[in-house]
Structure prediction request, 347 residues.
Amino acid sequence: MKVYEFEAKKILADYQIDTPAQLNFFASKDDISKNLEYPVIAKVLILSGKRGKRGGVKEINSFEELVSFYDEASAVFASEKPLGILTEKMAPAGEDIYFSISYNKTGPILVINQSGGVDIEASKLASVKIPIDPLTKKITSKPAVISRFKLKGFTDKVLKCFFEQDCELLEINPLRIGQDRAICLDVKMILDDRAGFRHRERQLTKTNKNLTERELVMAEINSNPDFKGSPCRYVELDGDVALLLSGGGASLIIFDALVNGGAKPGNYSEYSGNPTKEKVEALTRIILSKPNQKGLLIAGGIANFTLIDETMAGIAKALADVKPNYPIVIRRGGPNEKIGKKIIMDT
Prediction:
């Protein structure tokens, strides 16, 4: 889930991470306050990038300028359905760098580039990539760039935020380095939807994509404490082949293979982490509820921990009740797979 900038900055503030002062959010032109202290930086609130190069970030010196900026940004970014605009005080002068934490194939990683800002992609300076120990949640080395910019304390706080909030990406660009502190001028934050059950108190603005009825049901199930186990994913698509897939990597490989073979998936789904049969049954019922499907593929890699008999019991119950009248192909392996096969064959 992508998070709007003003909400991401509020999350950072909870960890005593500095952001520009006097952050304000205005959802409509009528909401714009006449009592702001100018100058301010105004930004259009969208979830895509490159807004600065498209006129979506501007220094504002009066109420009239701010109203004009709102109108201009609303028109230029109309196709992206802006949430509104934010304003904040201009930060003190300093040096701008790029700072981000994300995941690569080996695990979490911290990336720092001494040339931050809108032209980061064109930077000729090499980025410093610092692995993060996933167990201690600390960086595995202390390169010179952290000492140069006195970033140790800042890095520790951002790491704490990244892991406690279950971020997939926390990008600060630019990070303004002043005489006595580091200020996050712009923030991009992506949260792991599957960890939402750990953050039920967190109230964030939903993204621009309107969820379908089935996607909403899946979201409610994942947030319901009565459905124990790892969250399940369901994304509704326009095709006619229903998919019930297991394993993050395996599900994507299977999905790509089907598309490359000419099939049109009716959904993307994924369950892993040994979910309960009740949760898998609920996911299966959601998938089977979509009309005009021509087949169902139940597949995944060879599981290490997910109990095949447990998940097949949930799938079998849904199949027995719904009784779909199209072909079903099943390919699963892992603990108790023979028992799981018998459960399905007896359905």
